[in-house]
Amino acid sequence: MTDLSNGIEHAQRAALARVDADPEETAEWLDALDAVVAHVGRDRAQYLFDRLAEHARASGLASPRTPVTRYLNTIPPAEQPPYPGDLDLEERLSAALRWNALAMVVRANRAYGELGGHIASYASASDLFETGFNHFFRAASPANGGAGGDLVYFQPHSSPGVYARAYLEGFLTEDHLKHYRREIAGPGLCSYPHPWLMPDFWQFPTGSMGIGPINAIYQARFMRYLQHRGLANTAGRTVWGFFGDGEMDEPESLGALSLAAREGLDNLVFVINCNLQRLDGPVRGNGRVIDELEAQFAGAGWNVIKVLWGSDWDPLFARDHAGALARAFADTVDGQFQTFSANDGAYNRARFFSQDPALEALAAQLTDAEIDRLRRGGHDARKLHAAYAHALAHRGQPTVILAKTMKGYGMGAAGQGRMTTHQQKKLDIDDLKAFRDRFRLPLSDSDVEQLTFYKPAEDSPEMRYLHARRAALGGYLPRRRMAASKGLTVPSMPAWGAFALDAAGREMSTTMALVRMLAALIKDRDLGPRVVPIVADEARTFGMASLFRQVGIYSPLGQRYEPEDLGSMLYYREDTRGQILEEGISEAGAISSWIAAATSYSVHDLPMLPFYIYYSMFGFQRIGDLIWAAADQRSRGFLVGATSGRTTLGGEGLQHQDGSSHLAASTIPNCRAYDPAFAYEVATIVDAGMREMVEQQRDVFYYVTVTNENYAQPSMPGGDAQAWREGILKGMYPLAAESHATAQVQLLGAGAILGEVVAAQRMLKEDWGIDAAVWSVTSFTELQRDGMEAERRARLDDDNPHAMPYVTATLAATRGPVIAATDYVRAVPELIRAYVPRRYVTLGTDGFGRSDTRDALRAFFEVDRASIVLAALKALADDGELDAAIVHDARARLGKSAQRCVAPWQR
């Protein structure tokens, strides 16, 4: 996040320093604006102000450098709606939640010091959450089949507070709380929101800073997409995002703000917990982070509401006719505000109120204890309720609420405002007793010492109130739907993939084949509307332009212009009911849209089938954190790495050529990764993926790499179709079933390099008289997982002492060394080394990519046919099946020599 503090301060001081040439005229303008506010309302005044600013810009006048308002609350007391709740009961409930959240962390770390956990974050966020839980967060109601309801992205470090509430609600037991951060044995609680670990509770993973904000934005956008396409009624539902001010430094946190404003997502509310502290110290010690955030959100087109000061300050503001408080706030930076929060009323009187006689006079009527109780706005339910209500009523823009809080609020000397408060995991007995007394908890000294969890009796006024409020809002949350109430029916493969099954040698790339399948699937009456094509500004590259006219590009504004190519068959058509999500040059945005669609079965009880097609180098390498979060969220859909491999995207060079995405994909347990070479393999994989994800509703997603290289596509092999299918899906099969029995060497090829392997087979036969069998390896990852599972069964199960991996069993009836060549780093084929029963040689594209022709690149990386032939000959010689002199001659004949050049990974 750019530090704007100095610029903001300069602009404010420059404005004050200007000489007013006509004070009387200025007063008339200001009086007129005040009159509109007083007699017509703030909305009308804001409208006039905005129109005046637009007119000024149109007239060539410079606009203010930064849209920053005074360091005061946005909503004046006179415009606060009446508070609808029972503050006394809410404060007692809040005290119980605060204690239980603290107790579960301290108990865990007393027993196991390495477990960690966070106390101070929830201490600052509790009132932000509770105002929502008591008055705003609507749950999916049983009345509409469990669909609908608001969506809440919770600040991850405040998870203990959400657990504490679920304990009072009865969803979690005391045993759950006792097993905080201990999930292996017993009913444990995960550290942060993780749907994979608590699939019936957490909806959205937010533990990696920055992914929550961008996912919340694209979730709100996807809800509009569903509404406009007539697939779901998402009107009236709100996406709430609770995030920290320090988290806003992550590029993903602010990177999609303009999209939310551009598309008018008034179903989106961010609440930023501005406790002014991150892990090590102040977020902006020498500036004011709230000013920065206001400038950035307002500049991006958001509605900004500041909640800085609690109701205790209102009488002071009312008496401050000279504006002394506002001036003092403008001269105080966050580092000093933090110091104020860490000290008592006497210190704040001496250091803040004594800096100006006008401030001294304001504080003269207050005792030190009353000064100590002056709350920040984020700890005042009345102020927060007003802000939330205004946010929901606002139309045409997303809203951000900047709520000023104290980190470690209520922790006293043990943590409130302290530099080390984020690391505070334990409190001594005196600190615990002080916490009890501060929040008036009915706990004995023994209860405090033993960290006894506190739950009021079920028939107590507090518990009746808690359940009544949630009943009024439709039920409890967070709660996660684990399966859609109804899956989808997948059409038969010939209906959309017949051309691939019977390709008969027609030339095409696997990218073109997949796009053709996608176009056919979209035409299916039942499944078609649920397909979501997603691209990051490369649709034409991938041959998807035909879909522009067929289904249109989604835009909430429709198409307000005449596209330049209107007369063409493939013109660029935007439509409010468009099906394609064209995300521009934003892989992070595109994957966030994919996540929203891939989890729609759970979030909206509406299974969707997203296909995100992108340059494979810009997937796992660029947005791996978001893909990992997608896995955690149990996403279901297809990620399609197009133009994949190190050597197929010839001229694009180092940054674009992918040699490692399959290695990254292999680390994600519920990602099924495939690197098919032929169109019929692609069709088989897509068919299996659709059936697994939307028919059987299994929590997996598929990563399929396809290439841009045109070559002759064979038809699906004849014979036992089920056997071929099984081989493709398990990860390998022979291209000619009859050849491997007599072959002297086994050649394994994958994806883009399979063609080189087939050519190497011919060379071995024609030039050296050696028979070789060729195997298409569609997934080294699936083979490795099968091997690990077989290994584990043999180790742990007496009934399966000789469990055999699929690779081992498949190669058992063959002979000779095994050579594997891929367009990826050698670590990918190395995944199965443990399960190959004989000499195993791997070839890959380790090193930096570079620009050249495909042939030159494959020769450079030593994955061309000549290199494969040489590897086979050398392996045979090492096995004693071939004279070493033949290998020596082959090197010279093929132009391969160690002296010729250094290794590709060293260049």
UniProtKB/TrEMBL annotation:
Keywords: Magnesium, Metal-binding, Oxidoreductase, Pyruvate, Thiamine pyrophosphate. Pfam families: PDH_E1_M (PF17831), Transketolase_C_1 (PF22613), Transketolase_N (PF00456). Residues 731-864 form the Transketolase-like C-terminal domain. Residues 503-714 form the Pyruvate dehydrogenase E1 component middle domain. InterPro entries: Alpha-ketoglut_DH, PDC_E1_N, PDH/Transketolase, PDH_E1, PDH_E1_M, THDP-binding, Transketo_C/PFOR_II, Transketolase-like_C_2. CDD domains: TPP_E1_EcPDC_like (cd02017). Its cofactor is Mg(2+); thiamine diphosphate. The keyword Metal-binding applies. It catalyses: N(6)-[(R)-lipoyl]-L-lysyl-[protein] + pyruvate + H(+) = N(6)-[(R)-S(8)-acetyldihydrolipoyl]-L-lysyl-[protein] + CO2. One of its GO terms (molecular function) is pyruvate dehydrogenase (acetyl-transferring) activity. Residues 152-312 form the Transketolase N-terminal domain. This is Pyruvate dehydrogenase E1 component. The lineage of its organism: Bacteria, Pseudomonadati, Pseudomonadota, Betaproteobacteria, Burkholderiales.
